[in-house]
């Protein structure tokens, strides 16, 4: 008996929505993959037009259009092509989704920061030294002007990423492409896996660096692309995509289980936190906003992509793509959608693929038990902080762990004999699971400064307060419009900062 990692419910959702999108938008074809980034398990994988596996020698509707005109050899080849799992066997130019990789490299190597105001300047064009014809931004008629990296990702600005790609250089780019697994097969247990095509390292000049920075002029497979994004979602650890869960020998009852295979640590968790925060901004402020139109209230990060044909003579047309992660923190699902050869009048990844992903996530996220903002701020999801004063530190830590909290101590004295004289927050306060309780003895006290959270998303605000050893209480959804205590306040570590969020 063969047990796959495929979840039949998620598979059904993406098959239905993919077919609807390809037909309604009059695309040539499409691919969708849903993956658990921490285990590598493929939760769903589909391409369309598809076929009936119970009648696999019957041509699908697309093949049937000219089936009678084909020779026997052509029919055989067409059927083989129809059966092929194209997410694994076909390559494409990933387009602007690849800007996530360029961002990761730049941040990991300290060549850029997320929020340095005016770090990049988009005039609508970028002129490569020695070249007369510039590379245009997709929005060249309305240049983006001065931008931080976060804003450049929100706008999907090509000139900004060209500048970053040139800073990184060919050697460093290829070092990380190798680490992300883009130069090799993923090893997924399906036959015929393809491998992408890249420039030879010694053939790369500024023009090639420029186009690679925003995902053009090279090709990879969709399974490679989602594995790379899953690495970002998985705190920087690349895992092998997994399609087989276990095999049972029905004669002996012996079960062979396929465990998670971690390949390597590619980038640091610190870098992935920054990239995921920017992905959330793409949804709340940038080109990925359509993913939140139907999947409203869920914690989602995303990136849009629109890639050109791989050569000037290609008839492949554009690829509209969209990748999403959810929740942004502790991601449980990564979803990639590619729509091939859409109409020229509507081929942008954000406008075409974004709403399709949104529709898929409205069903997938509740099914996986991932809460929306409305659900996650419900009082029933909060935990009451227990009384741990006058207990030893060791006893207090055990009580807090059992209650669902983490704890931090501020003394180097013996945990088994030192008594907790104070705790922040105080007993009786309601906080979300995983919040941090600061434990003090009579000799210690730690203060911290409240950061400015204005305009931050829920994830950004939570992350910044956590880094400052502070807790959060959230009301509403969207971005932060007010906070208490205010920015710059000097408070005890562990203090709860109340934030109010509103949608634009």
What does the model show?
This protein is α+β, with helices and mostly antiparallel strands and 504 residues long. The protein has helices at 8-24, 61-64, 72-83, 86-89, 99-108, 149-155, 158-168, 170-179, 206-213, 222-233, 269-285, 291-294, 349-367, 373-376, 393-403, 458-467, and strands at 2-4, 29-35, 42-48, 120-122, 125-126, 135-136, 145-147, 237-239, 244-248, 255-257, 262-265, 301-307, 319-326, 333-340, 382-384, 406-409, 422-424, 430-432, 436-440, 447-449, 471-476, 479-484, 490-492, 496-502. Strands 3-2-14-13-12 form a five-stranded antiparallel beta sheet, with helices on both faces. It has a three-stranded antiparallel beta sheet with strand order 1-9-10, with no helix packed on it. A three-stranded mixed beta sheet has the order 16-19-17, covered by helices on one side. Strand 13 (319-326) and strand 14 form a beta hairpin.
């Amino acid at each position: 008996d063969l047990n796959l990692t495929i979840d039949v419910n998620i598979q059904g959702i993406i098959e239905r929505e993919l077919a609807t999108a390809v037909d309604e938008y009059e695309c040539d074809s499409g691919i969708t993959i849903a993956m658990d980034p921490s285990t590598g398990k493929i939760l769903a994988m589909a391409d369309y037009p598809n076929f009936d596996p119970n009648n696999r020698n019957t041509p699908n509707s697309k093949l049937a259009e000219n089936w009678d005109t084909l020779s026997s050899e052509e029919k055989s080849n067409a059927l083989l092509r129809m059966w092929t799992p194209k997410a694994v066997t076909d390559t494409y130019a990933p387009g602007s989704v690849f800007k996530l990789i360029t961002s990761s490299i730049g941040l990991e190597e300290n060549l850029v920061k997320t929020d340095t105001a005016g770090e990049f300047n988009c005039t609508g064009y970028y002129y490569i030294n020695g070249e007369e014809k510039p590379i245009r931004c997709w929005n060249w008629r309305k240049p983006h002007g001065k931008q931080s990296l976060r804003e450049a990702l929100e706008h999907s600005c090509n000139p900004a990423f060209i500048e970053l790609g040139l800073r990184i250089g060919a050697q460093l780019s290829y070092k990380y492409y190798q680490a992300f697994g883009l130069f090799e097969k993923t090893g997924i247990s399906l036959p015929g896996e393809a491998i992408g095509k890249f420039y030879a390292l010694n053939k790369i000049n500024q023009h090639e660096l420029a186009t690679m920075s925003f995902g053009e002029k090279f090709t990879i497979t969709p399974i490679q692309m989602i594995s790379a994004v899953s690495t970002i979602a998985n705190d920087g650890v690349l895992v092998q995509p997994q399609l087989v869960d276990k095999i049972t020998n029905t004669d002996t009852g012996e079960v062979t289980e396929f465990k998670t295979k971690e390949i390597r640590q590619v980038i640091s968790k610190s870098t992935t936190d920054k990239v995921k925060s920017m992905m959330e901004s793409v949804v709340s402020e940038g080109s990925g906003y359509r993913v939140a139109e139907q999947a409203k209230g869920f914690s989602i990060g995303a990136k849009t992509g629109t890639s050109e044909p791989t050569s000037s003579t290609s008839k492949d047309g554009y690829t509209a793509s969209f990748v999403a992660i959810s929740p942004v923190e502790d991601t449980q699902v990564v979803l990639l959608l590619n729509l091939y050869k859409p109409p020229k009048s509507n081929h942008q990844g954000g406008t075409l693929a974004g709403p399709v992903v949104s529709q898929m996530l409205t069903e997938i996220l509740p099914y996986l038990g991932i809460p929306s903002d409305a659900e996650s701020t419900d009082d029933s999801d909060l935990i009451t902080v227990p009384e741990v004063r006058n207990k030893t530190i060791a006893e207090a830590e055990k009580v807090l762990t059992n209650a669902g909290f983490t704890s931090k101590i501020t003394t180097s004295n013996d945990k088994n004999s030192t008594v907790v004289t104070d705790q922040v927050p105080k007993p009786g306060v309601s906080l979300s699971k995983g919040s941090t309780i600061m434990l003090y003895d009579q000799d210690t006290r730690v203060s911290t400064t409240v950061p400015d959270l204005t305009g931050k998303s829920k994830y950004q605000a939570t992350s910044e307060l956590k880094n400052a050893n502070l807790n959060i209480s959230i009301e509403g959804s969207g971005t932060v419009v007010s906070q208490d205590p205010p920015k710059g306040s000097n408070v005890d570590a562990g203090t709860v900062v109340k934030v109010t969020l509103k949608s634009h």
